[in-house]
Design brief:
- This protein has 267 residues and is α/β, with parallel strands linked by helices.
- It has 2 domains: 2-121 and 236-263, Rossmann fold (3-Layer(aba) Sandwich), CATH 3.40.50.720; 127-233, Dihydrodipicolinate Reductase, domain 2 (2-Layer Sandwich), CATH 3.30.360.
- The protein is built from 9 helices and 12 strands.
- Strand 10 and strand 11 (226-233) form a beta hairpin.
- Helix 1 packs across helix 8 (237-250).
- The longest helix has 17 residues, at 127-143.
- The protein is elongated and about 60 Å long.
Length: 267
């Protein structure tokens, strides 16, 4: 039985992860945390899901959670996730990080910390999105430079980072498949008289509004035809199920930094 602690447990993703744990065999929730001052701190975790008491109290730090656990699942903020990851290293425990918006320096820090513990860090833990990543590599290799590449992503109005971590991952995979440097060819906004589109550009455009869970479309536009690959998330449950799958998988891995492609056996 894999024993999990969930951080950000009263948030939109945290609640869905806890629900997924309770509906998955081979995994058990043993602790849950929220930020200091959160109104739900001190309450039973069962109240988050409208279920009976679980005997697990929502606490305001990992230090106050049970020491008897195997893996942390964290979908919070870059700063909070890094603090949690450092704590996991001190305990030599595994982690699953689904937070997005890490800076380059923070990403390098994650690589450093995960030399000592196993960690799955992925911007999107949906099975469908990770299959899409594989399909894109095939499409990019076949279509090559004859097709213009654009990415359009849409999320709810609460999302704080842009473009989404998933869109960035899609763009990075496409750039690698096409032999391009994303730092040089990524275009994140267009306005005014900008001239003709450069053939090597990879456009990443952002939409924010309402309660859109997550939509990503990759457009290959050629002369006389276009190919579109779209993934739409209808709820956060697919991300939550992927995170729980990753938690079960990562506890038996050696120290290192992994993503959902590893978890799903796609690389």
């Amino acid at each position: 039985m894999t024993k999990c602690i969930v951080t950000g447990a009263a948030g939109r993703m945290g609640i869905r992860i806890i629900d997924a744990i309770y509906h998955t065999e081979g995994v058990e929730l043993v602790g849950a945390t929220e930020v200091k001052g959160h109104p739900r701190v001190g309450s039973d975790v069962g109240t988050l899901l409208g279920m009976e008491n679980t005997s697990i109290t929502l606490v305001d730090s990992l230090e106050k959670a049970t020491p008897d656990f195997d893996v942390l699942i964290d979908f919070t903020s870059p700063e909070s996730s890094l603090t949690s990851l450092e704590f996991m290293r001190s305990l030599k425990r595994a982690a699953v990080i689904g937070t997005t918006g890490f800076s380059s320096a923070q990403t390098e820090r994650i690589k450093k910390v995960t030399q000592d513990i196993p960690c799955v860090c992925a911007p999107n833990m949906s099975v469908g999105v990770n299959v899409t990543l594989n399909l894109l590599r095939t499409a990019a290799a076949a279509l090559g430079d004859d097709y213009d590449v654009e990415i359009i992503e849409a999320h709810h109005h609460h999302k704080k980072d842009a473009p989404s971590g998933t869109a960035e991952k899609l763009a990075q995979n496409l750039a690698t498949a096409l032999g391009r440097d994303l730092e040089k060819v990524g275009v994140y906004a267009r306005h005014g008289i900008i001239g003709e589109r450069r053939p090597e550009e990879i456009g990443i455009q952002t939409i924010r509004g309402g309660d859109i869970v997550g939509e990503h479309t990759v457009l290959f536009a050629g002369v006389g035809e276009r190919l579109e690959l779209t993934h739409r998330a209808h709820s956060r449950d697919n991300f939550a199920r992927g995170a729980v799958k990753a938690a079960i998988w990562v506890v038996s891995q050696p120290p290192g930094l992994y993503d959902m492609q590893h978890v799903l056996g796609l690389k």
